[in-house]
Amino acid sequence: MSHMVDLVIFGGTGDLSTRKLLPALFLLHRHQLADRLHRIIATGRGEMNTDGFREEARENLQRFLPEDRWDESVWATFRDRLFYQQLDAAMEAHYQALGGLLDEGEAPGRLYYLATLPSLYGAICHHLQGAGLVNSKSRVVLEKPLGHDLDSCREINEQVAQVFEEDATFRIDHYLGKETVQNLIAVRFGNPLFSPQWRNTFIDNVQITVAEDIGVEGRGGYYAKTGALRDMVQNHVLQVLSIVAMEPPASLRPADIRDEKMKVLRALEPMTSANVKEHTVRGRYAAGAVNGQAVKGFLEEAGYQDADATETFVALKATINNWRWAGVPFYLRTGKRLSRRYSEIVIEYKKLPFSLFANDPNELINKLVIRLQPEENICLHTLNKRPGLTRGLRLQPVELHLTDESQNKGDRYDAYERLLLDAINGDQTLFMRRDEVEIAWRWTDSIIDAWDETGTPVKNYNSGTMGPNSATALVAVDGRSWYE
Ligand SMILES: NC(=O)c1ccc[n+]([C@@H]2O[C@H](COP(=O)([O-])OP(=O)(O)OC[C@H]3O[C@@H](n4cnc5c(N)ncnc54)[C@H](OP(=O)(O)O)[C@@H]3O)[C@@H](O)[C@H]2O)c1
């Protein structure tokens, strides 16, 4: 029992918990990976007993688990781990009741997962401490968004830090839980083929795309105040960028990896009013068609009529000022209601100095394409001889797949399974350190400030396209194009 952990989910009745956390916990239980996890206590403001919660959880799991993963016999043992505790973040008495429930379980470790509004994080930590529920074996997991700018992020971090040490604080970015993001570390640092070439001498540019085909569905006023830069770039895109660009770490220990990521974020050149128009594009979806369905524009959707300063698309040309990356643009883009849903990193190699091949317009260049969503795989685009007896050597593209689809099937897991397991086991590698999150805000704040100073407009794009024409121009002026 000495190593067991009770998990308490604040916001245990919410959307994230229902769609992601409980299914991930069910699967960890199913695969007997959560051997240190004792009980799961979901909290919410509503009055409900544990039996009522288990009934709801059963229905939701059947609905949200991936196909074929529901199993009655697994449920029979999983249900016994589930508990419900009524808790309003502001009510001290509710924390006392939670303490009573935790004492009954006798697990010494406590993992508090905060999946409520981030504005409640400070109060929840404060009350947990006040009720004597925090000790050296307690940890806290924080869901995004951690603030809406550097100041508000610091405030939340400061409040949490009054109760939990940094090495007990786990900041989630679910992109880091993706198998391919971890595979990127293996590919970069495990292969002598790639390691020496991973620099400006050989690489021409890097592109990171996080494209969604959905609109701002069901996110209430949150998105209107947030926009694509804060919602996606500050966290997911910059986290991925820092792993692509980091120096080899001294070891795979969390501190060493996070130190190297941090150096990259520090080397990002801030945007200024002098260059923001040249290096950024803001967009907003207008009506159009996505996957054959007619859809409304952002400003025509209920609740968003006044959100004309909010971007649903952003494209950026980022510069990393260090020896490895000087001269290599990092083109970043993300948006909603784009032509399809996918996330990928493209490493584009430099062209040869001249071409030996008659049919080669020197356009077919080597690329490493790392796909994170919807499927996860890595593909190297190379060239070889077009087979046949025709006169002269002609080139053809050949894709080398570095992920063995057949082998990986049984091992697929959701990012939340990885992250929950690591948080239960106390491994911080795939979580964001405080300084990383804050420096990422500092960079995104520089963009927002420069947009404000220059009045950079939000340009319309038709739903179902890949953003405004100016996003194409952002890359085209450098003689390059987005990889589609
Ligand atoms: N949904 C996602 O896919 C997603 C993805 C990434 C990050 N997140 C983040 O995860 C957090 C939760 O998001 P969500 O979509 O699950 O929100 P949600 O569906 O609105 O759920 C909010 C949860 O917080 C509880 N809650 C609200 N006010 C409370 C209070 N005063 N005291 C105690 N509990 C309270 C609610 O419980 P009752 O209503 O039962 O009281 C509910 O369980 C947010 O920080 C969000 O940004 C969500």
Question: Could you outline the blueprint of secondary structure elements for this entry?
Answer:
Layout: E1 5-10, H1 15-30, E2 37-44, H2 50-64, H3 72-78, E3 82-86, H4 92-105, E4 109-114, H5 121-130, E5 138-142, H6 150-161, E6 169-171, H7 179-190, E7 203-211, H8 220-245, H9 254-267, H10 276-279, E8 280-290, E9 293-295, E10 313-318, E11 330-335, E12 342-349, E13 367-373, E14 377-385, E15 395-401, H11 405-408, H12 415-425, H13 434-454, E16 458-463, H14 469-476
Parallel strand pairs: 1-2, 1-4, 2-3, 4-5, 5-6, 7-11, 8-16
Antiparallel strand pairs: 7-12, 8-9, 8-10, 10-11, 12-13, 13-14, 14-15
The chain binds NADP nicotinamide-adenine-dinucleotide phosphate.
Structural class: alpha/beta
Count of distinct strands: 16
Distance between the termini: 53 Å
Number of domains: 2
**Please, what is the oligomeric state?**
single chain
Q: In CATH terms, what is the architecture of the largest domain? A: 2-Layer Sandwich
> Helical stretch count?
14
CATH superfamily of the largest domain: Dihydrodipicolinate Reductase, domain 2
| Overall residue-averaged pLDDT value | 93
Shape: globular
Order of helices and strands: EHEHHEHEHEHEHEHHHEEEEEEEEHHHEH
- The proportion of strand residues reads 15-25%
Radius of gyration: 24 Å
Main pleated-sheet profile: 10 strands, mixed
Describe the structure.
With 484 residues, this protein is of the alpha/beta class. It folds into two domains: 5-143, 3-Layer(aba) Sandwich (Rossmann fold); 176-411 and 443-476, Dihydrodipicolinate Reductase, domain 2, CATH 3.30.360. It is 36% helix and 22% strand. It has helices spanning 15-30, 50-64, 72-78, 92-105, 121-130, 150-161, 179-190, 220-245, 254-267, 276-279, 405-408, 415-425, 434-454, 469-476; strands at residues 5-10, 37-44, 82-86, 109-114, 138-142, 169-171, 203-211, 280-290, 293-295, 313-318, 330-335, 342-349, 367-373, 377-385, 395-401, 458-463. Strands 7, 8, 9, 10, 11, 12, 13, 14, 15 and 16 form a ten-stranded mixed beta sheet that branches. Strand 1 (5-10), helix 1 (15-30) and strand 2 (37-44) form a beta-alpha-beta unit. Helix 1 (15-30) packs across helix 2, helix 6 (150-161) packs antiparallel against helix 13 (434-454) and helix 9 runs parallel beside helix 13. The radius of gyration is 24 Å and the shape is globular. The model has no long low-confidence stretch (mean pLDDT 93). The structure holds NADP nicotinamide-adenine-dinucleotide phosphate (NAP). NADP nicotinamide-adenine-dinucleotide phosphate binds next to helix 1.
